[in-house]
Amino acid sequence: MEPATSRAPRSRFVVWLHGLGDTGRANEFLADSFPTTAAFADARWAFPTAPTAPVTCNRGMLMPSWFDIHDAPITSVSVRDEEDVLRAVQSVHAMIDREIAAGTNPQDVFVFGLSQGGALGIASVLLHPKTLGGCAVFSGFLPFNSSFAVRVTAQAKKLQCGLQTPVLWIHGQADSLIPIKEGRDGIKFLRGLGMSCEFKVYDRLGHSLEYYELDYCQRWIEKILHRSGREGLIRRVSRNIFLCSNLFNSS
Fold it and tell me: Which SUPFAM superfamilies did the record assign (predicted)?
């Protein structure tokens, strides 16, 4: 399913990218569980599902996966499949670009992601040719090897716009699957590019998504909308949930 092509002013658009082995449908509840805020009262949410593919760290088991993951837990020496990541980024960009072409302001587009979805979210906003509203990463990691960072950095600096998208990164000190060091290293890399990043750590949080993280994300969104002067651009108080069950469905 693709967004309508109307040129009328459109509400804010949120893409939620799930973690490894999950599905978009299983995350649809987040549209209603997300703390209510006037800025997102009429937001449309998209919950794409990753394609099914063999995953190396799970002994080649087939499961929904945005890109291959070679090791678990993920560390600085873990192999990253960058070409796989770039293919997934292109698909996310296509989804965002359809929304923008249909009349959504790029600064009203937000990308949220958990774990592997958070890693894809980072790559997607970093390499997008427009400044988006924001990116929230929950227990994520950088999907690039250090050698590939040079290529990403060069492309990002050439585009510039992606570097201006604000990022919130939330991580748990008790995360054993993606250790806190991955979060700290990721933030250091993004800040080194000149991106505006906020890093929030919860001492007892493991590799999971909790309500208080969404509450913090809401306050962060309100803050960046206030800074950009866009908090008043709210057109109605109803919520219309846009569902995209499969990002790679061409129908």
Answer: alpha/beta-Hydrolases
